Amino acid sequence: xxxFFAGRTLADLGRDLRAGRTSAAALLERALxxxxxxxxxxxxxxxxxxxxxxxxxxxxxAAGADRGALHGVPVAVKDVxxxxxxxxxxxxxxxxxxxxxxxxxxxxxxxxxxxVIVGKTTTHEFAYGxxxxxxxxxxxxxxxxxxxASGGSSGGSAVAVAAGMVPLALGTDTGGxxxxxxxxxxxAGFKPAFGTFPVDGVFPLAPSFDHVxxxxxxxxxxxxxxxxxxxxxxxxxxxxxxxxxxxxxxPMDAQVEEAVRASFPDxxxxxxxxxxxxxxxxxxxxxxAYDVHADRVERAADLYQPPTLDRLRRAGxxxxxxxxxxxxxxxxxxxxxxxxxxxxxxxxxxxxPLTAPLIGQRDSDLGPLxxxxxxxxxxxxxxxxxALSIPAGFVRGLPVGAQLVGRAGAEHVLFAAAExxxxxxx
Amino acid sequence: xxxFFAGRTLADLGRDLRAGRTSAAALLERALxxxxxxxxxxxxxxxxxxxxxxxxxxxxxAAGADRGALHGVPVAVKDVxxxxxxxxxxxxxxxxxxxxxxxxxxxxxxxxxxxVIVGKTTTHEFAYGxxxxxxxxxxxxxxxxxxxASGGSSGGSAVAVAAGMVPLALGTDTGGxxxxxxxxxxxAGFKPAFGTFPVDGVFPLAPSFDHVxxxxxxxxxxxxxxxxxxxxxxxxxxxxxxxxxxxxxxPMDAQVEEAVRASFPDxxxxxxxxxxxxxxxxxxxxxxAYDVHADRVERAADLYQPPTLDRLRRAGxxxxxxxxxxxxxxxxxxxxxxxxxxxxxxxxxxxxPLTAPLIGQRDSDLGPLxxxxxxxxxxxxxxxxxALSIPAGFVRGLPVGAQLVGRAGAEHVLFAAAExxxxxxx
Lengths: 426, 426
Prior knowledge:
Amidase_dom (chains A, B); eleven-stranded mixed sheet; 17% strand
């Protein structure tokens, strides 16, 4: 079953709304009807609150108060982001029954843009995992094969968009948690530059790397949402985009690499040691994540899903000096990336080096699953630069993502490159 | 034996120099004669280089080129600070025979101010200890009782000044390493605000807290050196100085506390939990120190003095999440100090809660010696604010220091408070 929003862009919806061919209330109904409980994309649905918001959106539009591209659009929000009056469950028994008192700052941006919040999407427990199948509320399931993981941690958001339940969702991305499920589910996901979206009201994973990002069917819709939420004008499209292929020196499924590379033929190749960036990422993320959870591990370890608890205990043993050294090495890597992004506008590589794993799978042909999943995405959290995953075909019937990385302040170049590629693919 | 410079201020020396009653060359000779090898203040003396510098200083003065208060003044430099062409031994067998290629940035400031560098002063190994008696070149000895430690880690610098070998010395202060030996040797020591003096060319201990500071007989001489090296003009003396006594909730020798308090009677008392600041300090210092030393511990552990190696190994086990939490708690403490320094101009407390321990002593009536020694000084490294230790009498025949803490940018208030106190003591 494909939901209503499959194949409908934000631009389509906006035109229909403004032409009176549909209404926010009708779009909300289509969203609610499209929710397929078997895919477990939603941890909570707010039919009532959403109906009120849709009504307001319709009244405003009728009165000529147009809030822009997201006005009246149904949106889903990852369940580590507070929405006032709704549960924030974090995918964890620790937060069972917890209801948020206030909207997160990024949710306020959504509301100011006129979006209609449909509900909260399933997350890997505390966003601490890239497979999306470890959660107190169960795994989110890949629409392309429900036996397979969505990827994570923003798995529910990716599934909700990929299955056409909503045209847009918010996620969080600390090491790839927006881009990875976007790639594995065959949609687009955008993590802007570090700090672009405020993280107040978002449960922290590793504050040095935590980003809020958007998931939508296409790069164009990610761009539309990004512009609407940041309120920034779109600069003119660049005439020329200098692109390079990044050889990250990381193990990859050869067919995945080939599929992505076929979408970007004839690029110059730059070797960048992404393994070093992943080590930096792991040391910093683990120390910061354990700081967030130390008291909870002490007090009520049993409430964690066992894989999360294992991971946290290992994270707690990261030595302080490794953290200090990683902070230093992060600066080196960030400088190297800045240098590369001085010579090229956009760097291209696969988003994930493999296709969607089976639910419960912990290993892969490339080694332990978790580090393999983030190996190509986390370096851009380390560097804090904008990174976008777009659909790049299929391997063995499963979606594959291409990742485009650019400079902060040159997001329009990144989006232009992505849209040209999509256009050339037809 | 008291050296030539005992009882002579920088102002005295400057007047004599400019009146032609002495010369830089003569002052250097007095310094070299005053060096008492039994006190082990110097790790290296540069008679030849110093003679050349003194000659130049005399020629310049004769030609009317006056570099100011430090022109022609013999100065000693702690042996973790690079002086081009001289050994930087770090008090460690690891750096035996190591000769610095370039001047540290703070040494360049000394030279630009016309100072004559006499030699390098004994340091606690790698500046990683506050007793000053753990060093490949042996302990520096307290001039008030050579069986006792000078305090550290800038022990040799304090001894050189206290015994009248030089009127001024540079030290480094990560948790009190300028102020502690100053207090225990009966002189003044000033750690300016974090970042005031550059640390390039200074061997790091814990970069978050590393400061360069000055040691001299009196607060007035510290002020003179501070002004000369920063090139900053002296603002007019404040009319009123609001002072408070800090009750740091830390164990103290009652007689030490009484002696310091007697110098500052009738101050309002503010309770500040300095124990929490010490825990923050320890977590950050230990993780950063081990980062600096990890490869050396791996490669050649045997070259460390055993107490240093023990300490490093313990430091290496500081968990990363404790470091992360300490960085966060540091912000809280820094804010609390800023609040207090909004209500008062100067905070007063003892510099060290006890008097000079015996050489080799590792324990004290207040618990393990090392944490006791830094308990009252390290909080001001955590907060990064200027702190000055001044002589405050004697207990059981050993010197005691009063510590004055102020706001960055209001150093003149700190010095004014110290000089008024000294004047009132006569």
